[in-house]
Every structure is written in structure tokens, then in C-alpha cells.
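Q: What would this chain look like folded?
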Amino acid sequence: MRKYGKKKHALIFNDTVKAGVIENALNRLIEEFASESVEVTIATSFDDCYSIFNANTPVDCFMLTSQMTGRQADENEKFFKLIDKLNRRQQGVPVFLLAERKKITLSVSRDLMSRVDEFVWIIEDTPDFIVGRAVAAMERYRDQLLPPLMAAMIKYDDVHEYSWAAPGHQGGVGFTKTPAGQRFYQHYGEALFRSDMGIERGSLGSLLDHTGYFGDSEAFAAKVFGADKSYSLVTGTSGANRTIMQVCMKENSLAICDRNCHKSIEQGLMLTGARPVYMLPTRNRYGIIGPIYPEQMEQAALKQRAAEGPLTKDFANQDPVYAVITNCTYDGLCYNAKRAQEILGKSSNRIHFDEAWYGYARFNPIYTDHFAMRGEPTESEDEPTVFATHSTHKLLNALSQASYIHVRHGKDAIDFQRFNQSYMMHATTSPLYAISASNDIAVSQMSGNRGYSLTQEVIHEAVDYRQAMGRLYREFEQDGDWFFKPWNAETFTDPNTGETVPFEEADPQLLASTQDFWVMKPGDEWHGFKDMPEDWCMLDPIKVSILAPGMGDDGTLLDTGVPAALVTQYLTRYGIVPTRTTDFQVMFLFSMGITKGKWATLVNTLLHFKQHHDQNTPLKSVLPELVENYPDVYGEMGMKDLSVKMFNYLKQHTPSDKLNAAYSTLPEAVMTPRAAFESIVENNVEMVP
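A: My prediction, written as C-alpha cells:
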């Protein structure tokens, strides 16, 4: 069987033994490892060893050498730090302590004994015996390393089957029969095509029936994400949302819906014929999407809206069978989900949190109470049934189209057999198994210590970037100049001392671990949401918006400004793609794939933009494609010329005001979403340019 595509790797930390009989024994040990095809790395200092772990270098066995003399407490402290660092991402790697038996007996501490898997008598035991023990430990570690489905797929791949079933390319061979197919095959590699199998492979189980290793994978996900039941999907969160709606509602059911919902929620209404009772979210002066306020969710308000709505008034005597809110909003505003569930639970027995961009929240305490699958599942007939949908491919680590449905059973729970009918309706009988396997890996990466370690690293990177931008903003401001400003609270109060300091001067460790800083306070000017309730909404640290100058705190445009669309155009020219742009906001997502310090390039590019803007650099130098496509319009313009022209347009036409007004007002409903779609089917529609 292939061992996951690489040699075994042993890391030996030796910063004390430099000569003599023990060093000779170590050299013989390394030779024996080589004879077993085990790659060995020697770290001769604490910093070197720590850096190896920091680089996420895969390790199958970690060996510590000790003379067990002198400053034993200092040596142990180094050992503890290294073992703790190893366990943050590579929990379960066997740890061996190499020393003389007599000295271990006399000097080893209880704490060290509890953190080490095996003690090796480096002088008395033979290299063959030590390496044999180490290789066996590595095998045990590797056997449990992969989650259920991924491990089974790798084992199945070793069968090298001769198939007479689908898919027709037969492990990629079919592609190799033409030049274009060969290029396609070579580009993606053999492993992808060998893992592309049909549902006839019964030994793996079934995605549609949730049996075998597919069922094991979903059970593993439920345990990690705190659900009673989890469903793995290859149709994205769009498919996940439609699956839930299809099984919860029927024609003329009442559904409580977030007006700021994903299109798949609208599609669910089209499919089911349910009648929506909408809750209106908020927007601030920058066009940033805020939360629905509690009064919109209250039972009395929803009943009144249903009774007054032209599409719902004839059905207002019904209880809503489903409620959905988007958590977090696209701009990274996260509800206090515990409170939202308590309020919505008075109106509906089934609550759906669309958490497509928020699948990591359970694994970091900074998000406490602000996500659906809080705590551990408990049987209760007093709580609503809760659904959470996650796009694992968005901000966890999975392939595109991978998603999960997580369920906590409560009132009006839907049993597996009924739910699975809807699941199969929105699934496929020909799933790409690599997508399912990536879902399995995404869960594995969040299990144990890894979830916290990975999420905390991303939060730290985002905080570092925010503070760097904050410092630059203050420096330019002191010089009477402009720069971009991070959108977050401008001061931080230390929870331990009560001291308040500017955000950019705060301890980044505290910023990355203090939820209260990110919770939006009523009346705070920075966030711009009027009447924000206490403890209702927090800003996700990893969804970072920067603000270009041009808008006052009261929402009116200033005399001068820098349109964000121009900033995004420049960034895109240099290979930096923001996730969202409004009139004066540019937003970036910090994810687990962001390498440490990568944000420094972003800061430098923004500084270069400012230089070109202020110097009015000709567009033909900084945005040549724009000039090439529209030479008559932009050929003689400079960067600042275009900026001024765009800003004047915004000031004259105020599109953001019109957009905010559109989002803050419910249009008169004259037909249900289903009826509207049927008009498309009947071609009773007119395209609006």
C-alpha cells in the first residue's frame, strides 16, 4: 500500500549531545533509519526545531535527546514548548525520549513522562530495536492520520481495478488517447482520475444512502461540529439550502426569511411554493450589510407582517414552518445566534442559519454564542430543530462545491428517511469522490487541537494587517494627509487593566482573543448602524474592510474622496482580488490559505496606489488595459483625474443612497416567488436592460 505519497520522516532534536558514546549511538540510529527508508532531520537548536514545526513540515516521529544532567528544568521547558507546538497541528505524532536508562530513572519528571510516548535507552538498546519501535509507532500514527473516507479511497486506489463500469475514462486512460486529453490528464495528475469512480464501488459505501465510509465520514463530521446529524454534499451550500427548504415546506407554507438572503433561498421558495414573511436587515452609510434587529424577529411583529402582507394575509393563521437568517452577513457581521434562536424559536420550530462563509466559528472561543452549533447536542423537546449550512470550500479547506448540512434535532424534527428524500433530489448519482474526500479532510483539519490553531493563526494575521493599516492611517493623518482606514473600533480597553488605548497600539494577542472588542456597541460612531442593540452583533475579525476617504460620519460625501472602485481596479491589475467593493469600502477575506505576512504585499500595493493617485500618474502607465480598451476616454487622463471624475459622479448621483433605500424598503408583492418563476417558464417576462 502506498504510504500517502511520501517517505516516513523522523525529526531528532539534539542540542546537548555533541560528542562521545551517545553521539556515536545517535549516528548508528540514523544509519538504521536510512536502511528502513526513513528520512531523518536533525535540529541542533530550539529555534531550528520550532521553525520546522512552524513551517508545518510533516513529522511521523519526534525524538528528543537528553543528557539528564545539570539544568534539567530548563531542558524540560524546551521539550514542553516543542511538544506543545507539534501537537497544535500534528496531534498524535509519537514522541520518543532518548537518554541513558540510569539517568532517566533518576531525573525524569512526572510532567515529562506524561508527554512522551516512549523512553529509549540510547546506549543499551540496539539501533535495530529502537528503529523497529519507532517505525511501528509511525505506522500506528499513519493508520489513524486520515479521516474515514479519505483513508478508504486511498486503500481502494491500491487495488488497481480493471473496471467495466463508469466513468468511461477509466482512471484517465481515455483522456490520453488524444493530444488535448493528454494535456488535461497531465495537468491534473493521475490521482484525480483514479479517484473518479462510479457508485458501483459498493465497498466504499454510498453518498446518497449515507452508508459505509461515506456514513462514517458524516458521523465524524457530526461529532466534530457538534451536530446530531451531518450530511456531506457536492452541490455547494446552494444545494444544501434548497435541500432543507424542500423538506421543511410545501405549497402555501409560511416561511420567515432574511431579505438579505442568498439566491438559493429564493430558489427554495420557488420550488416549494411557500410564502415568505420577510425580515429587513440594516445597512450603514458605506453600504455594509448589517444584521436584522431583534424587533423584526419578534413573534408579534412577524404575525402583523403576515397579516398585512398581500401574499400571506389569507394564510396568517398558520404557524411558520421555517425561518432562515444569514450568519454572518457577507460583510462579516455575526449574530448572537443564541439570542436570535431564542426569539425566532417562538415563531418557528425549525431555524436555519445559512453559515456558508462561517464554518470555522465553532473552533475559536472568540465567536462564542455567535454560531448555530453551540456547545454539544442535547435532547430537548423545548428547543427548535436547528440547521446550519456550511460552504466548506469557502473558508475551510475543501474543493469547490463541497458543503455540509449540520442538524440539531428539536421540535418538529425530520427523521432521516424523510430528510434523505430531499437530499437525493438535490444531489447527483455521479458525485466526484474527490470533493467528498476534501469535505472529509476539512473536518479532520478542524478536529482536536488543529481547529483552534488554524483559526487563531488566521485571526492573528487579520489583526496584524488591521493594526498595520491603522498605524499608517494615523501617521498620514498627523501629516494632514490621507490613507485607508481599517473598519473596526478605534480604541481598545484592556479587560485586565481597564486602560483604553488606540486600536493600533493595543496588544495584538488581546485583540485576537477578546470578543468584546469586536462586539458592536450601541451608539458607536465607527460602525454606523443606528439603534444597534446591546450584545446583538459582532464583527468577524478575519473579514477585513478598509475605507477610502470621501464619506463623513453622517453619511454625506466630503469635498474630496477616493472611490473604492478605482482602488479595486488598481489592485486587480497587480493580482490582488478583493472580495467586495462599495463606493468607499474594499473588503478582503483572510483564510487558512493566506501565508504568514502575505498581507505586507497588500499594504505595499495600497501605498503605491496612493503615490500614483497623488502624483496623477498617467493611466497609460498604471492601468494600460483600460487605456487600450477606451483610448478616447482615458488616453490623456491621470490617476487623480479619473478619481476626481468618479467621485464627482458619486456626489452628484448618490447611488449608495438609492441602493440603501432599495434594501431598506420591501416592494409591494404581487405574486409569489413560484408564480414569478412560472412566468419565466411561460415566457411572460421582459428583459430589463
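The mean pLDDT is 93.
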